[in-house]
Specification:
alpha/beta, eight-stranded parallel beta sheet
């Protein structure tokens, strides 16, 4: 994995705005409609080629496929695996529950399906990840990013969104997800891309899935999720992996988010070398100080969010630079890569929190902010 050896590098969390016609295809497929496979595959391939060029043009150093062919960063697996014929529903958000009048007025965005596990989990489309790999490889021809990564859902976040109604225990469900998803993780690594495992379950799970537990009780669940994840990642070198941690990519109160200082020790036990985490939104920006209290292991890299992925405000480059310098002064400039709080199109749906053209303007601002920070840190 590349480090910021000469300047602060830039990247993002994974999902990027999809073309409207591709979004319509994904929504239709997720709703159960049959698509022309050749037409869908071709549209995804073109979208990936376009999104890689857009990232490079916007100043993003470490790029990906924008998750263009996935209906959701976590729920996409139901289209690749068997056993998901039940219905999970959407869990209530503990933070919004404290403000019922506001919750009643909150905008309801189009939703993706969340089936439940109601049968044995097996692969039914092993070729899907190979298509992802081929699309990104083709898109990288003729462009020169610093590096490329691909995302995959962690066993814990799959268990969070797709409820277990089949396996005898949560532990058994996680274990089966580990065995199955390991194939996808290994395939991404073999293709030569950095693997990012998405693990919002380690933070978001506290107030969305386990609101009745104490923080200490939730931490035990997070530790079990990390133990399962490490087993799935056992054959991949840590320096070829990054982990994304977040508290839920939505605009809301977030006052029930578990503090970073209570879960950071769990996240740092995970095998991936780099840790991507929220650092721009008003609920978590202040938590850079946690790394004054908690020593970051020498081999680890931080990818703090310097762009808020839930607001159409475009961060000023000088603010981006300030955020990066804070982290660099605590953990060292070579161990900081500029990132985003979360994705800009977490699910393939027609309504987004951030307008696509504004998302790209944010990336341009991030690149300029990283340049300003580099001038200060390498002078």
């Amino acid at each position: 994995m590349k480090r910021s050896t000469e300047r602060i590098l830039t990247t993002h969390t994974g999902s990027l705005p999809r073309p409207p016609d591709l979004t319509a295809m994904l929504e239709s497929m997720d709703g159960g409609s049959a698509l022309d496979p050749a037409a869908f595959d071709g549209r995804v391939r073109r979208a990936v080629a376009d999104i890689v060029r857009q990232q490079v043009d916007a100043g993003v150093d470490i790029v990906n496929d924008g998750e263009q062919g996935k209906v959701g960063y976590s729920t996409y697996v139901r289209h690749r695996l068997t056993g998901f014929g039940g219905k999970s529903g959407v869990p209530s958000r503990a933070d919004w529950a404290d403000f019922p009048e506001a919750a009643a007025r909150a905008e309801r965005r189009s939703a993706v399906s969340r089936p439940a596990c109601d049968g044995p989990i097996e692969w039914q489309d092993r070729g899907a990840v190979q298509k992802d790999v081929a699309n990104l490889r083709a898109a990288l021809e003729g462009v020169r990013p610093t590096e490329a990564f691909m995302t995959a859902a962690s066993p814990g976040v799959i268990a969070h969104f797709l409820r277990n109604e089949y396996y005898p225990s949560r532990e058994a469900y996680l274990a089966r997800l580990v065995d199955v998803m390991k194939e996808e993780y290994d395939a991404i690594h073999r293709a030569g891309f950095v693997l990012q495992v998405d693990c919002p379950d380690l933070a978001m799970g506290r107030h969305l899935a386990f609101p009745s537990l104490s923080n200490a009780e939730f931490v035990k669940i997070a530790e079990a999720n990390v133990e399962a994840l490490n087993h799935a990642l056992r054959d991949i070198p840590p320096d070829r992996m990054r982990l994304h941690l977040c508290w839920g990519n939505y605009e809301g109160p977030h006052h029930r988010d578990i503090p970073l200082r209570e879960i950071i020790h769990v996240a740092l036990k995970a095998r991936p070398q780099a840790l991507s985490l929220e650092g721009a939104n008003p609920r978590h920006e202040h938590e850079w100080v946690v790394f004054r209290e908690v020593r970051l292991p020498e081999e680890k890299i931080l990818i703090p969010g310097v762009l808020d992925s839930t607001t159409n405000f475009i961060e000023h480059p000088e603010l981006v630079a300030q955020r990066l310098v804070r982290y660099a002064e605590v953990v060292g400039r070579e161990r900081v890569i500029a990132g985003t709080d979360c994705g800009f199109a977490t699910f393939g749906r027609s309504t987004l929190q951030v307008e696509p053209e504004i998302a790209w303007a944010k990336f341009t601002s991030m690149a300029e902010g990283a340049r300003l920070a580099s001038q200060q840190l390498w002078r």
